[in-house]
Amino acid sequence: MIAATETHMAEISKMAAAAYPAECCGLLAGIDNSDKEVRITRVVPSDNVSQTDTRDSFEVDPKVRFDLMRALEGTEERIVGHYHSHPDHPAEPSATDLSMVYEPELFWLIASVSKPATTDIKAFCASPDASFFVPVPIRIVKE
Ligand SMILES: [Zn+2]
């Protein structure tokens, strides 16, 4: 389970709408609330540096990841996942998404956006062998 604030969700919604019709993307930092729940602490936007069509692919800038890892050094926080948007498509992982699971421990947040607004945000994690995605509930917590 993921715990996130309304502000986190609103930030992702806003970025997904702003990037439309391209995909937005970024990283999620968090802490382990309990063995069953990760609490999001930071939503860190990235440029979409995908070399193919950014309307249906995304890639987080490696520099954003490097800088975030540096910023989290010595804290309880770690990189717990990433987010991206699906312009005009549902908030469900695509076949391309599945082919891009390199770190099965990371959460995936996917925002469905249809002009002009984000309609849905869902979370997933990959199965241990990265052959399918499992939906993960998002619990909205107080700021
Ligand atoms: Zn996707």
Give a description of the structure.
This protein is an alpha/beta fold and 143 residues long. It has a single domain (2-141), classed as Cytidine Deaminase, domain 2. 21% of the residues lie in helices and 42% in strands. It is built from three helices and eight strands, in the order E-H-E-E-H-E-H-E-E-E-E. A hairpin with a 6-residue loop joins strand 6 (117-126) and strand 7 (133-136). The longest helix has 14 residues, at 6-19. The chain is globular and about 35 Å long. The structure holds zinc ion (ZN). Zinc ion (ZN) binds at residues 84, 86, 94, 97, 110.
Secondary structure: elements and pairs:
Layout: E1 2-5, H1 6-19, E2 25-34, E3 37-46, H2 62-72, E4 78-87, H3 95-99, E5 107-114, E6 117-126, E7 133-136, E8 138-141
Parallel strand pairs: 1-3, 1-8, 4-5
Antiparallel strand pairs: 2-3, 2-4, 5-6, 6-7
Zinc ion is lined by residues 84, 86, 94, 97, 110.
Summary of the model, kept short:
With 143 residues, this protein is of the alpha/beta class. The protein contains three helices and eight strands.
CATH H-level superfamily title: Cytidine Deaminase, domain 2
Q: What percent of residues are in strands?
A: 35-45%
Mean pLDDT, nearest integer? 96
CATH architecture: 3-Layer(aba) Sandwich
Order of helices and strands: EHEEHEHEEEE
Record field, number of beta strands: 8
What's the CATH first level? Alpha Beta
Number of domains: 1
Give me the secondary-structure category: alpha/beta
Number of helices: 3
Rg (CA only):
14 Å
The low-confidence runs, each spanning 5 or more residues with pLDDT under 50, are none
CA-CA gap between termini = 17 Å
Largest sheet: 8 strands, mixed
Give the fraction of residues assigned to helices.
10-25%
Q: Strands across the major sheet, in which order? A: 7-6-5-4-2-3-1-8
Bound molecules: zinc ion
